[in-house]
Amino acid sequence: MKKAIYKPTKQNTVILNEFEEYCEILLDGEYKTVSRNDLEFIASQTQLSTFEELKENIFINCIKNPLSDILYSYNTNRLTPEPHQYKPLIKFLNSENNRVLIADEVGLGKTIEAGMIFKEIDKREELKISLIVVPSSLTLKWQEELNIRFDEYFEIQKTNQFLNFINEVENSGNSRLINEKIIISYHTLRDERVMKSIKNSFFEVDFLIMDEAHTMRNYGTSTFESAELITSISEHIVFLTATPVQNSLNDLFNVLSLLDGDYFKDYDYFQKMLIPNKVIHKLIALIRNNHTLQEIKSFINASDNENYPTILKDIFSDILKLQTLQNLEKIDFIDRLIKSDHLSFIINRTKKKDVGRSIPRSAKSVIVEITNEEQEYYDAVIELVKFLNPDTPQGFITIMPERMASSSMIASLDSFKEIKKSGKLFIKDIDDLEDYYEDIDIRQEALKYLDDIIMKGKLIGDDDSKYLRFEEILKDLKSQNIKQMIVFSFFKKTLNYLEIKLQNMGYSVGKIHGDFSVEERFAKIKEFKKGNFDILLSSEVGSEGLDMQFCNVVINYDLPWNPMRVEQRIGRIDRIGQKFDKLHIFNLCIVGSIEDRILNRLYTKLDIFENSVGELEPILGELEKQLNISELIHLSQEEIDEKIHLKELAIRREEVEIKEQNSEVEKLINEDIHYKSKHDELLNPIKINALQEQSKKYL
How far is the CA of 137 from the CAs of 35, 109, 183, 389, 658, in angstroms? Predict the structure, then answer.
């Protein structure tokens, strides 16, 4: 075995295998194939160990000198992490179950945090199979992110490829030869053939990452069942989601039950277990924010509960005995309160305001006045919706004709012509549904309503009022020298309509929606970043995980009926790396439409456009169901206004409570104030250098 110096980094190395033009070397503990020209061969008078002896010596050295308090992956990444991005890694390394849910707000770098955990565990252990499961639209993003930032290549596998891989592992006689890093989609994971193959094999995963974990929240669905299967055979698990609570606390429980089924078994017990957490974290906040001892005691007296665990009662008792509260005592009490927490050990939650990442948003709602012809067209669509809704079990789905008309009257006219011709309401035209729905058969009696819609739609003309108002916004932005912007619509035909209109006006335009392959979507985002075009037209596909912080304008051509979708859209530009000082958000609504009378009014009053949803997440996740829009359309305007007013008051009341106790998630999860000291300890240069010097003895 020969010694050499690797010229690019001037590091000592050993030659494992020599070829004509290349050599296989050991560098930084990893095999690398490099050009012979990059190596300076040196004569050695020293007797070198074999590679197996080298590994054995290093192993023995680590046994004699435990190194659990430093990062093995130090200096092996191609990035300098933000300080807050060490928190999930520290939490994971200190966990007893090798699991963590990263629930940071949108734009704080959850992908990087997951990559840091993977890199560290990969350095500490021999990972044979590493698997990442993501929505299909994010496969390329994850592949490129890990390759660029961590020098790790994960292969994207389709369903048949993954099936073949499972079979290869099952038939492999030597598992030590396996070293695979794979990315698959949720679609592949929940494929019946894949699930059956996993169940009937000894297939195991050493490291598992599951992005957009909220998609697994619905118990009993194929997505949940497939996640339950894959997590049951995984050793290390990282979940990621910016919105762990979308509809109720039950969402969070279901996700956590997948992450650690032994600890999170019973929902009723889960709820009881979390009751003290609200008090624990409120008390931590009071102590941390230097409230007076009397205020702290008053809170304890008002919050004491005989059903609280003994450890918490003892803390209460010790504080109530105090005459003064010194800084060292504060630290001790906070530490004891953290240890009494039943949830923070497995969830990491960082907010933008905690890391100074809050970029001002300038939001403007543009209410579009429409012509008489357009109003008659919209009214005719509402009559169709009223006809469809009572007898159709899909409820919310039968409101789609109204959403289509509100999005774009001219674009929706083409859809109604297709509906009449086929007798079906095509769900594939809608790109923001969370569940899969079959196309809906339209009863024969609906034809007269469709005839009326089509007749009135033909009277609108070539230009509709909404588009003309949109055109004014574009001209105004151009006058401010703002070129790039993202225009969102859930309706594919609206995007097609806008593409043609904008191109005819001379704009350079790109477009992505669900009918484009993942590769095409990803390539289009790259073109947009390079400045090859100015306006990106995107459906909901474009608002899940794709980063576009090089742009600072979002135009909501139509409004999502789930407010969390609004946050996800804006989150594409409100991210780490955003260079602009302000974000511009425009929301277009047709006057008198459901979006205008209900959604825009509520969203505006609740500052959803101006501010990150943050503390309102638990409330807004339920808003769509609570409003029950399919029933509201049968009410008079006065009755609708009354319901909206009552709902607004109810949300405001909840908002006050949540702002006092933090959001449904955050009030249950403690901010670990010790993570900075742990971060400094893990990155202690003296210890790292000592390890590196010790390892050099064996080279």
Answer: 37, 18, 12, 32, 34
What secondary structure does DSSP assign to 411-474, as a single string?
Answer: HHHHHHHHHHHHSEE-GGGB---SS--PPEEPPGGGHHHHHHHHHHHTTS-S--HHHHHHHHHH
CB half-sphere exposure, 55, CA atoms < 13 A: 7
Q: Cα–Cα distance between 457 and 410 in angstroms, integer?
A: 7
Q: Evaluate whether 244 touches 255 at the Cβ level (below 8 Å).
A: yes
Cα separation of 457 and 378, whole Å?
A: 9
Is residue 596 classed as helix, strand or coil in its secondary structure? helix
The encoded tokens of residue 338 equal 């953290």
Query: How far apart are alpha carbons 496 and 492 in whole angstroms?
Result: 6
Q: Side chain identity at 255, as an amino acid letter?
A: V
The predicted-structure confidence for 298-357, as pLDDT tens digits, reads as follows 999 988 777 788 888 899 999 999 999 988 888 888 878 877 877 878 888 887 766 766
**What pLDDT shows up at residue 543?**
60
Instruction: Determine which helix (DSSP H) or strand (DSSP E) holds 559, and give its type and residue range.
Output: none
Nearest-CA neighbor of 587 among 400, 366, 361?
Answer: 366
Q: Report the phi/psi class of residue 238: left, alpha or beta, with left for phi > 0 and alpha for psi in -120 to 50.
A: beta
For residue 277, report the phi and psi dihedrals to the nearest 5 degrees: -60, -35
Backbone angles phi, psi at 290, to 5 degrees: 60, 40
> What are 485's strand-pairing partners?
535
The whole model's pTM is what? 0.60
Q: What's the angle, vertex CA 244, arms to CA 242 and CA 250, rounded to 5?
A: 170
Kindly tell me the burial class for residue 388, based on how many C-beta atoms sit within 10 Å of its own C-beta (0-12, 13-18, 19 or more). Answer: buried
Distances (CA, A) of 563 to 58, 240, 247, 349, 400: 54, 20, 11, 20, 17
Q: What is the DSSP string of 100-148?
A: EEE-PPTTS-HHHHHHHHHHHHHHHS--SEEEEEE-GGGHHHHHHHHHH
pLDDT tens for residues 392-404? 444 455 678 888 9
DSSP state letter for 537: E
Could you give the CA distance from residue 189 to residue 132 in angstroms, rounded to a whole number? Answer: 10
301 φ/ψ sector (left φ>0, alpha ψ -120 to 50, else beta): alpha
Q: Which residues pair with 583 in a beta bridge?
A: 361
Helices (H), 41-96: 51-64, 87-93
